[in-house]
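Handoff note, outgoing to incoming analyst
You'll be picking up this chain. Sequence as last confirmed:
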Amino acid sequence: MNILHLNSNLNRSKIHYNIVESLNSLDSVDGRIFFPTEKNEKVKHNKDYIDKINCLSKYEKYFYFYRNRHLSRVSTDLYKNTKFTHILAHSLFSNGKLAMDLSEKLSIPYSVIVTNTDVNKYFKKMIHLRKNGENILKNATSIIFTSAAYKDRVLKQYISSDVQKEINEKALCIPFGIEKFWINNNHKLENCLDKEKIKLLYVGKINKNKNLIFLADCVQKLNKEKNKTKFKLTIIGECENSKDMKIKNNLINREYIEIIDFSNKEDLLSYYRSADIFIMISKTESFGLVYAEAMTQGLPLIYTKNEGFDRQFEDNLVGVPVDPTSYVEIKEAVNYVIDNHGKLSNNAFEHSKTFLWENIAIRFKEGLLTKNNTFFTHKRS
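Most recent structure output, in case you need it:
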């Protein structure tokens, strides 16, 4: 199986690099990444299977169809003498249109991965592109969602009723994996929970989407309401711009809040192990690898309802999903985790093996090999 990966955002996330790396490690699988960039943009992961092509101007991102026609010409010329058996677009809108065009030109089936940006930016806000997104999904041989929650939202809110069943039949739910470091250093909690001192942990970026000010407000309320129990929230993360610094400044002098700017993996391991509950209530979340990292250290989770991590497992198996705007739900979730800490911790530890990249790569390969009779049957746009 020789896969052409399309990824115009390779530098922004290591996840998609790991997809290619893990697939290429399987027997009988090879793959190259088409990575179009603006001039002078560097590749963070220097691998011989990455075809970095400096072909984009800084203005092309504002002209969706022009950009795709341009990339179609460039990639067709680049790969006209290469024998690929499948195309994998690493996002629906940014890369899926190119996958559909190349598929038609080269007579190669394609699959797409639907990302957080596809759901919460393109489908939700760019109404003029929704029909294009639906057309890409109709012509794909398989569609990969990171969660059932995202799959159901796309089908129910953005796809025409007459094709929902057809698209659902070729939709797969495959999570992303985590670095082997976390699996190799997994840790089962053995100490009893001290219910008078509950240590909450957040790991990730500091920005508006992560909902940290509301989370800090919730911790303050919990401390006022709980006479015997005191809660401390440790936030490990960095700001990306001046707007994010305003959020950090709002948090930095709050009682019961500790902020750590950066932690390497080895130090982060100790923070996970010393915490009682991992909590991240982002407004939107494609998947959230830190949830899986926390699970390897036996941490129960509190996570956002109807976002990327929700429905990876049954409710209350490894943690509790919550409405990220509801203090009542967050309070109830915290109380549930405290009362069922031993069971949730053990479940989290056991199910963390789900996120081993070797196993996920096999699921990706099987998904790409899925045959579908609707290939080339719809009018393309």
